[in-house]
Amino acid sequence: xxxxxxxxxxxxxxxxxxxxxxxxxxxxxxxxxxxxxxxxxxxxxxxxxxxxxxxxxxxxxxxxxxxxxxxxxxxxxxxxxxxxxxxxxxxxxxxxxxxxxxxxxxxxxxxxxxxxxxxxxxxxxxxxxxxxxxxxxxxxxxxxxxxxxxxxxxxxxxxxxxxxxxxxxxxxxxxxxxxxxxxxxxxxxxxxxxxxxxxxxxxxxxxxxxxxxxxxxxxxxxxxxxxxxxxxxxxxxxxxxxxxxxxxxxxxxxxxxxxxxxxxxxxxxxxxxxxxxxxxxxxxxxxxxxxxxxxxxxxxxxxxxxxxxxxxxxxxxxxxxxxxxxxxxxxxxxxxxxxxxxxxxxxxxxxxxxxxxxxxxxxxxxxxxxxxxxxxxxxxxxxxxxxxxxxxxxxxxxxxxxxxxxxxxxxxxxxxxxxxxxxxxxxxxxxxxxxxxxxxxxxxxxxxxxxxxxxxxxxxxxxx
Length: 464
Fold this sequence. Notes:
Elements: E1 9-13, H1 16-19, H2 61-75, E2 79-83, H3 86-89, H4 100-115, E3 119-125, H5 131-137, H6 144-160, E4 166-170, H7 180-184, H8 192-216, E5 221-227, E6 231-233, H9 238-260, H10 265-273, H11 284-289, E7 295-299, E8 304-306, E9 328-329, E10 335-336, H12 338-352, E11 356-360, H13 378-396, E12 401-407, E13 427-429, E14 441-443, H14 445-455
Parallel strand pairs: 1-2, 1-12, 2-3, 3-4, 4-5, 5-7, 6-8, 7-11, 11-12
Antiparallel strand pairs: 9-10, 13-14
């Protein structure tokens, strides 16, 4: 097999809070992301303390989506992964009635995608939630958020049931362990007890959403989404192998619950040994047990290593891990490991026996205009090429892979750092960290490369 299947979904992935802007227009409420103008590590405590940030305008996709979708179509996309901003539909999260202006906006987006026969692939909660739910309820630590989320997802399923057939619940749900404000609306110093309690509420809400989607849109598919943070043992010392097993279990726990429908034994042991008691209501475990997702989706940017020696660990961008001496790093210190993608695909397929979808993969880099005003991003082409080659290898191994949506097909505001200079796109956006720029879009060299990859169904990929 040198060509990907004819029904393979090719495209890109964006998030509302990183592209739309228009943070306070047409009835939209403040989200947790709006309270993080400088990235995910320093949430403001009050609305009054909020300062303007680059996300307030982002790349103005809110107004420029027809131009951007046309560019995606020019590249050959047959799929666009995007998210709905919960705060456009329910500005404070606990209203009885949705905001019609927000619903109408996404109708326009889906209609625009339909013009090009581009499949919308919608994430229900992508690193944001109504900030009022944090202020008034304490985020996902309060069980009442389950009902608020159910109202939200039921509303959008009913509204878009004829337009959207492919859904995800929570973006990188396992990141709540590393960034609790972003993931579950808790402060960064929240205890493990509080974080896992909030995660339980989110897992119940996930199950309710899965069942609601299948009931309201019978011909739909709905999946979960993990940050695919696979860890290798640093050495063949059995202690390092066990350390890697523990590190991997921290994120596999979420996939196990969302796929197998129960809390795994290794997690129950962790709770016992760390004094964590999860308050559950009757029926919670039954709800989870009856809501296995249709497919597993994940992001993959880098692998890591795990060691039993705590002195080996290195502080990372978001997740700490042990450096791998066999791999190079990106400009932001992320290990570049294309073969890790093949390993991860085989690992997940063997574990869950469900279709997989790579919904984020890409290289954040500083792009410079050359003397002709062009961007020769061969480093991005090499990165993407090598990862797609390994995805094809995994399919030859027998992995069932539904599609590939690159992260940030157009430059957007990086979530972890709230920067524009950390660019992922095949399309350059003239916007800078200081807020200057014309917002003009420009095709990079990688734009034409990805166009060729899609048009050739991957046969243009080069193998070292």
